[in-house]
Amino acid sequence: MLFHVRMDVQLPPHMPAAQADELKKTERELAHSLQRSGKWRHLWRVAGQYANVSVFDVGDVEELHALLTSLPLFPYMQIQVMPLCRHPSSVRDGDA
Ligand SMILES: O=C(O)CC1=CCC(=O)O1
């Protein structure tokens, strides 16, 4: 199943820089691993915002929930999820 996910990140303004850097590093490492596995299909920065738009390809919504809540930045993100299905006029096979 494909899910469109928007994540808006808001770190506490007084979080020490070293702690923020460590969170971002572990988030990046997990994001790389999930992209290589094919579960995190797309990861785009929203221009001008500390936010991303992503597409996840997971088995079900429970797996998506487990994945999102495992992200190191999860406690500092507002997350919006939209389930996707194939558009009848799409010329792609849904795998793209
Ligand atoms: O910077 C972000 O949008 C949050 C994030 C997702 C994957 C990553 O490495 O950072």
UniProtKB/TrEMBL annotation:
Q: Does the keyword Isomerase apply?
A: yes
Isomerase listed as a keyword: yes
Which key words tag this protein in UniProt? Aromatic hydrocarbons catabolism, Isomerase
Instruction: Write out the GO biological process terms.
Output: beta-ketoadipate pathway
Domain Muconolactone isomerase, chain residue ranges per copy: 1-89
Q: Which Pfam families match?
A: MIase
Q: What is this protein called?
A: Muconolactone Delta-isomerase
| Organism of provenance | Duganella violaceipulchra
Gene designation: catC
